[in-house]
Amino acid sequence: MKKNIILFLILNAFFAFAQTPKVTDGKGIYTQYCLACHQEDGTGVPNLNPPLRKSDWVNGDRNRLIKVILEGLDEEIEVNGESYNRVMAAHSFLTDKQVADVLTYIRSNFGNSSDAIKEEEVKVLRNKKP
């Protein structure tokens, strides 16, 4: 009887875990961590959060973009001719793959058509010492 109860508990735990949604793709990561500030369509919030849609920051310097995710941002920036001065927290808790996936998603959506960010690029910048 004890073995059956233990097996039942193990199977329940397994199926509960298997059904838990996992944030593993770029869109899912965006939805969980970016959407609230940058909006579903990537337009941002005027005078608060910069747009990602057709953004020179998104489509420009890859390393700068990766560093924003890893280190956050606490300075005034200009995006598509508009100034923004709101703090963005670092998202360094994301894995290198998650950072690459979300940035690739952003760079290929919202009117953007830039190439993918590779996991190795993120790893190099994360490990780079100043």
UniProtKB/TrEMBL annotation:
Signal peptide span: 1-18
Molecular-function annotations in GO: electron transfer activity; heme binding; metal ion binding
UniProt-listed Gene3D superfamilies: Cytochrome c-like domain
Record-annotated Cytochrome c domain positions: 21-110
The keyword Kinase is annotated on this UniProt entry: no
Keywords, ordered alphabetically: Heme, Iron, Metal-binding, Signal
InterPro entries linked to this entry: Cyt_c-like_dom (IPR009056), Cyt_c-like_dom_sf (IPR036909), Cytochrome_c-type_DH (IPR051459)
This protein's name: Cytochrome c
Organism: Emticicia agri
